[in-house]
Amino acid sequence: MDIYNLISAGGLIILPLVAWTLSENRRVINWRVIGWGLGLQLLFALFVFIAPVGTKFFLLINKAVVVVLDSATAGTKFLFGRLALPPGTTNEAGESSLGYFLAFQALPTIVFFAAMVNALYYLKVMPRLIQGFSYIFTRLMKISGAESLCASSNIFVGIESALVIRPYLQNMTRSELATILSAGMGTIASTVLALYVFTLQNQLPTIAGHLVSASFLSVPAAVIMAKLLVPETGRPLTLGVDVKPFYEQEDNLIVSIINGAQSGLKLLGGIVALLLAFLGLLALLDLFLGYGGGLINNWFGLHLDISIKGILGYVFYPFTLIIGVPPSDALEIAKIIGERTVATEVVAYQHLAELMKAGALHHPRSAIIASYVLCGFAHIASLAIFVGGIGALAPDRLKDLSQLGFKALLAATLGCLMTGAVAGLFFSQATVLFH
């Protein structure tokens, strides 16, 4: 263990303190949520990164995801031919790859994974997994069954997680609503996990295992931050009660696969639309900032990066130091984290992969921590998606949801940083998991 591991350990204390400082009610602290939330993160990390059996399990999960991902590319290779071949590979006809194309190689896998997840729902595999995690969170952290069920489902799905607690949304407390929003934005869905694996696999062969680990670690982190920012002052109807997932059973397996694929196509379209709109608007805004920033730099003899990414990088810089990123890499990682806030994690992971490929990061722990921090929908676009999506299921609570939106985004962001701190605490160059 070196000094940076100890700094990451300190980050696990400082980040909740930041959330408490910004709390709606600093007098109300649920120590059980904080204690067990942090305890579950540390126990899971100890099992995966330290215990020999856990390490083998990690590598098995990583291999399984890669194998499934290879199967997922069969459709894209059939439809797009050489455009779908990853860089450095050839097809059966001996044709080589034309390079990396996000639209033809990574994004289409979302459709496959959406269909697979829906099939697992029909086969009742997914509901059992979700209920198992929900039982743990309800019993140990003493939060309501409804919010723990929704938070657990966020390990596997995105905005659809609200559907499993649809009957309870109307009567939830403000704190419960903040928790489900934070858990939704503080995690990623398994349907898009393949996209990030595809992006970073060449630079970090074990990325699939890390992203699966981050998905589990981020749930208790998001709950901790949500309960600190918006403490529970009411009495949830399902407090300490196990509730079963609510979902509509498909007619048969084929129908579930078809509906899942169609949902995946809608998700794919939404991601493409967001990237086209947000990247264009950010580029336009950067033009204005660049002009004004150029004048400021000339007047004062400075060399500041006055762009959206640069400004947010300065905001997140102290946080990257807190979670254990070495100073030599801290600003670059901070810019990527800041970029995720406005341009989605898809763009942020792309730029992380580019930094790794170019050898621009001086310490291997920086990329690992960044991959954990970025593993969440903690950005402006998802704020609108989650508030609007859950509001559509419970229209009478839309006002509360909209008021809680930015607090939930803050909780999700702090939760993702906390997950990165856990990864930084257990980082070791001596193990194959971090190579």
Secondary structure blueprint with pairings:
Blueprint: H1 3-21, H2 31-49, H3 52-80, H4 102-106, H5 109-122, H6 125-141, H7 145-153, H8 174-185, H9 190-200, H10 207-229, H11 253-300, H12 308-322, H13 327-357, H14 364-373, H15 380-393, H16 398-426
Helix pairs in contact: 1-10, 1-16, 2-3, 2-10, 2-16, 3-10, 5-9, 5-11, 6-7, 7-8, 8-10, 8-16, 9-10, 9-13, 10-14, 10-16, 11-13, 12-13, 13-14, 14-16, 15-16
Q: How many individual domains? A: 1
CA-CA gap between termini:
17 Å
Percentage of residues in DSSP E strands: under 5%
- Count of helical stretches: 16
SSE order in H/E notation?
A: HHHHHHHHHHHHHHHH
Query: What coarse outline follows from CA principal-axis ratios?
Result: globular
Sheet/helix structural class: mainly alpha
Radius of gyration: 21 Å
Helical residue percent band? over 70%
Major sheet description: none
Annotation, overall tally of beta strands: 0
Low-confidence parts lasting 5 or more residues at pLDDT below 50?
A: none
| Mean pLDDT figure | 86
